[in-house]
Amino acid sequence: MIERRAFLGAAAGLVAAPRVVGAQGAQARTLRFVPQANLASLDPIWSTAVVVRNHGLMVYDTLYGLGSDFRPRPQMAAGHEITDDGKRWTVTLREGLRFHDGEPVRAEDCVASIRRWAKRDVLGQRLDALLDEIRALDDRRFEMRLKKPWPGLAFAFGKPSANMCAIMPARIAATDPFTQLTDSTGSGPFRFRRDLFRPGDLAVYERFDGYQPRQEAADFLAGGKQVHFDRVEWRVMPDPSTASAALQNNEADWWETPHADLLPLLRRNRDIVVDLINTAGNLGVLRFNFLNPPFDNVAVRRALLPAVDQQAFMNAAMGTDPSLFRVPAGAFTPGTPLANDAGLEVLSGPRDVEAARRALRESGYRNERVVMLSATDLPVLQSLAEVAADLLRRVGFNVDLQAMDWGTHIQRRNNRGPVDQGGWSVFCTTWEGLDVSVPGSHQPIRGHGAQAWAGWPTIPRLEELREAWFEAPDLDAEKRIAAEMQRVVWQEVPFIPLGQVLPSMAYRRSITGVVKGGPALFWGVRRA
Amino acid sequence: MFAYVVRRVLATIPVMAVVALFVFSLLYIAPGDPAAVIAGDQATPQDVERIRESLGLDRPYLVRFSAWVWDILRGDLGVSIFTNLPVSTMIAQRIEPTLSLMIVTLILAISIAVPMGVVAAWKQGTLIDRAVMAFAVLGFSVPVFVVGYLLAYYFALEWDLLPVQGYTPFSEGFWPWLENLILPAIALGSVYIALIARITRATMLEVLQQDYIRTARAKGVGQRAILFLHALKNAAVPIVTVIGIGIALLIGGAVVTESVFAIPGLGRLTVDAILRRDYPVIQGVVLLFSFVYVLVNLAIDLLYTLFDPRIRY
């Protein structure tokens, strides 16, 4: 049956017919994707934005990749050898790896890329501190000599969270890590078309014919990254209703972050699949400022615990559909290997606002003004902040809820001064589930004072345990450490987890093979 | 006349200088820090500071302002903090969709609103007049985004007549270009149609009471000629003024319309830049809008002489 619009279009411009017919074949080989945000920057080392990381995963390959069990597997690496009591790593590259400019990937490119990454990424900085030497042995092998063993180094190279360890040619990796790259040459399965890039509108990726996928099935960020589309177009649509309508009208194939309130509408459409792809989701976090009253007082922070109702936070952020969130959530991302229930009853037991009030009275709280920052242009964060403000008021805090846009919010958070000098007391945010699945990249759980993430808690025990995690010999040891860290979190309360947000993705039913585990990935996926 | 035009063009220089000073100062004191946005959640204050230094954001106000003005005088609007692209390139990428949207909206609005206003004045007090006025009230009252969503729902989703979103360049064909602009132009033009129709009606009512109209009627001139040749030409000056003022309305409305219909125009570029605190882009776009507005005002002033020979510069 001819669609009315097609008929109208044909009637209005018959001369355009050959172009339309020609475009249909090309359209079938093009995946039209609506990303979660506007892609503005293109350097996954310079920017920590999730959308830039997602761009990076297309264009750059990594030495290791996480499987769906969130454990690292060799990706560009053929394998590695650990000698000298764990202090010497020799990594061998797979044969046939090439950059988009046709040049072979050499060990020296990896060394330069690792050096740049190590100046910015939190795990990279640890490597930087541990490195005695890193050098290319030949074109396919490089060696790292460490001051002490680090069994989790492969995880650091393979983790997708910002900043990913993107491998690029040495000439490009020589760029200062605090300066944005101007060349997007990588060795990933897609080649980025800078010439077609229109920030805020369109980003075009073409299949890289020189890519050598591993000869095995795709497994999240590991395995064979087989590409079945010639071209992937990211079409930025800032308005959720427009993105929803575009998906329904077959003007888009895949929408990364449909709003929770539009999901029932999309589910009713037989041509659309709504699915949980990012199983790690995001962890909601209530963060305190340790530098100023009242949350410099541990008793005040602890007083809140009996009253925090994760279900209420999740209902406000995601609605009442239980498939869109998970509670109770502890300090580590639920569903990942280190998630545990040590002491979790502080959040999963019966909620008791009266007990929280009593605890607050006994804590020494002197009715100091509590400034809560709320980013109104991010609906999930705004909902979390409003629930938190209400909760704090019910418990007895003198709350000043301050609404602002994200750009202001993120600047205000860096202000360490008291609240009457533009400082803050508490805010809500979400962390990528993969980031907070392990102690190494889990910023809210750190306790290294002035160097820590906004809030600046000083909790030496957490730092000791984090350090122990780096040296843990196996998963069982990691789990024991994670459980102990979670117990310390309930004691010191650097943050309170608010539940795991599980945002669904929506795509046309004709799209199959979507890889699950984390962000939208473009290998394995094809049009039926 | 020529001397007047030259004087007016020269007068834009101090206007643009004031705009530049105002925009730069406003952004300087506004909260928000692009370095913090770039550095993201995980960044340490040291990281943010390094990025700020690399972008030159740590330099004093006067140093930054004079560097920016010097660049502008050399025709360089700067480079986007986030995309690393020249601001002029980003504006060039976005200007066609916005211009297209505004041209289609203007044509649509004028061709609907002026006849509506004329007919309403001619049929004053009748059902037609009331219907036109009711439409005008509706046009003023319903926000652009509501009109946009309703149009998209019915014309795209329900009836599959037009696309929901996007923009196709004119170079790819007239119909593909136009079909993406019809719904946005109607949404954006609704307020504009209401405004022009009301002004046209009010001015026409006044003109239709004049002696020369009575004389024309007495001479047996036909109704159509009276309305469109005698009355409308004499009512044109205030109508043209409102059309000119409405350009500002269009620029403001384009921001919303471009977001609702995912049109990659200057409006969206502005909003994106503001949200990220991409100072060079904000400054460049505001300067451009101001310049366009000054030119539109000049064009309107010159058009007065066309409609009213008594006006001379």
Description:
The complex is a heterodimer of chains A (528) and B (313). Chain A is of the alpha+beta class. Chain A has 2 domains: 35-198, Dipeptide-binding Protein, domain 1; 282-501, Dipeptide-binding Protein, domain 3, CATH 3.10.105.10. Helix content of chain A is 30%, strand content 19%. Chain A has 17 helices and 21 strands. Chain A is globular and about 70 Å long. The model of chain A is unreliable at 11-23 (pLDDT under 50). By secondary structure, chain B is mainly α. Chain B has 2 domains: 2-73, no CATH class; 93-307, MetI-like (MetI-like fold, Orthogonal Bundle), CATH 1.10.3720. Chain B has helices at residues 2-29, 34-39, 45-55, 61-73, 87-122, 127-141, 144-158, 174-179, 182-208, 211-218, 223-260, 266-276, 279-307. The radius of gyration of chain B is 24 Å and the shape is globular. The chains are: A alpha+beta (528), B mainly alpha (313). At the A-B interface, helix 1, helix 8 and helix 15 of A face helix 2, helix 3, helix 5, helix 7 and helix 8 of B.
